[in-house]
Amino acid sequence: MTAILSARDLRKEFVTKRPLFGAPTVVRAVDGVSFDVAQGETFAVVGESGCGKSTLARLLLRLIDPTGGEVWYDGEDMAHVDAARMRTLRKDLQFVFQDPFSSLNPQMTIGALIEEPLKVHGIGTPQDRRTRVAELLSRVGLAPVHADRYPHEFSGGQRQRIGIARALATGPTVLIGDEPVSALDVSIQAQVVNLLEDLKEEFGLTLIVIAHDLAVIRHMADRVAVMYLGEIVECGPAETLYTDPRHPYTETLLAAIPVASFGARPARTQVDGDPPNPINPPSGCRFHPRCPYATEICAAKRPVLNDTPDGRQVACHHADTLHLDGLSGVEPARSEGATRRFALYAQALGAKPSHPDDP
Questions:
Q1: Is-above-0.70 flag for pTM?
Q2: Residue 359 pLDDT more than 70?
């Protein structure tokens, strides 16, 4: 696999309190994360709220600086380049934010918003930039005449399309979406998911998607990394991870996916309690206080993210002996077209698609 983007022992600590005497209080939001993303693939990072997903996404583009570790893009360590070089690199690495309502400046027209990255990077003449804005609006399903309107005149789904158009303006090779559909309702989520997939194929993008909804990810990701309390606990091909999980936390996330029909799957092992305090994480495996399979070694020794024979990585002392529940059945391939993907995704969330022919 040729990696276009890599993280190596990536760490981010936030100081929450600085007392007059004694040590400061530190939250380890990302704690030793490593992975590779191949060119052209869709790589997803999933986990519950507060596990460090969004912090990781911002570290990958150095929107925030890491406490330690490295981020490599196309053979260059972005964690240690100067501001001028980082600004140049951001032309190739773009971000779609979670909230389409707060990520767009309400005082700028959407044409100016989409054109702004082109101005920042000195791309094209004014006429070239206006032409590019019209092309991008058309590509994300909006009319070029909308360029003179303001963000408040659009719905949430339309605003997210505007955010995607802005991210595509500079012709990036890597697009990172921080929960790009979580603020939208189910039918609009499906449209945006399908749009991202179509744009990926058209522009040859590498997608990194942050999400907590595994139903979204199953129909778009090639590989999935599962995060828990700042660490990756499992990483591997999406369909294999969904049907045959190796880490108990992955099994827990899969069990939480809603099923439309009552009794469609058997009852599963329930996990009690809330995630531990990230300021003072538990010893050993961080999931062991909530894990139904935990033993003495889980509390005493921190598991390492090891490679498995089937091409996955798992951080669990009992990965070779546990028989965990996955999702039964294999879904049709994503290449069957946008209409079919829309129907599959909406069905997975228990919704009836109102506009199955939308992009």
A1: yes
A2: no
